[in-house]
Amino acid sequence: MKLGRLNHVGVATPSIEASVALYRDVLGATGVSEPFDLPAQGVRVCFVDTPNTQIELIEPLGQASPIHGFLAKNPAGGQHHLCYEVPDILEAKAWFEGKGARLLGEPRIGAHGTLIFFVHPKDMGGVLTEIMETPKGAH
């Protein structure tokens, strides 16, 4: 298995609008996507482009959202996960499982429209890690 580029850093936020204002007005971000809902994952997301990766702003969609629990512990928000690309999601899944890593669910479609899965932070040095199949035609 070959780990690819860092695709994005996931940042949980109680308000995407407030976070977009921070990235735009304080940090000078110009490439900001329109927010959109991912009901299957219980989140609303928005991407902020940077020269070498993206920031994924993540807001909960209701009390059942996994982000709701994160924000209960971190009310101001904060880094939620790192996302790395891999060329083949099923090969990566088998590789992580073969190493004894705990996966949080089965591969599913993520915000970029490609298959993803998450690896438990206890198996990744304390960092929730998203593994994402490289989008077709990317880079």
UniProtKB/TrEMBL annotation:
Enzyme class per UniProt: isomerase
This enzyme's EC code(s): 5.1.99.1
Statement: the UniProt record of this protein carries the keyword Heme: no
Transmembrane found in the keyword field: no
Pfam family, one: Glyoxalase_4
GO biological process: L-methylmalonyl-CoA metabolic process
One GO molecular-function entry: methylmalonyl-CoA epimerase activity
Domain VOC: from-to ranges: 5-134
Keywords: Isomerase, Metal-binding
Protein family membership: Belongs to the methylmalonyl-CoA epimerase family.
Protein's name according to its UniProt entry: Methylmalonyl-CoA/ethylmalonyl-CoA epimerase
Originating organism: Sphingomonas xinjiangensis
